[in-house]
Amino acid sequence: MNKSVKAIAALLFASGTLLVACNNSPENKQDKVDKAWEKSEDAKENLNDAKEDLAEAKQDSIDDYSKTRAMWVGKFAENEDRIKEYRKTIDNMNSKEAKAKARRDADELERKNKEMKAKMEKAQKDGNWDKFKREFNSDMDNLGKAISDLFKDNKK
Q1: Which listed residue, 24, 44, 113, 121, has the most CB atoms within 10 A of its CB?
Q2: pTM of the entire predicted model
């Protein structure tokens, strides 16, 4: 009896396997191929969209850099003009100490302006534009304020 139970179990297993195999008809296989094809087409479309987005982002970054750089170049020129203007007022100062301090201050601000100009030129090569832009704008504002403060200090 034990052998016949095993034989029946084996027969049931084999017939079940055969039924499952028969259910994988060519129609089911074609459906799977069609679904795979659709996924492939969707992936291609997503890839094309991503390429377009990347190209647009690159162009936006280039445009942003160009506009920002032009603004900074203008500020550098303005800073240079203001420092030259300040240097003209130094000769009208009364004390030698005040003149010497004013010259040192003007020299220091001129040096900072040149350093920042060099830093800007290097920035495009280094990457991480957004972080650099934020920090550089802050530095430019501080430099502009320092130059403005020269005139305020001179008038006191």
Answers
A1: 113
A2: 0.60
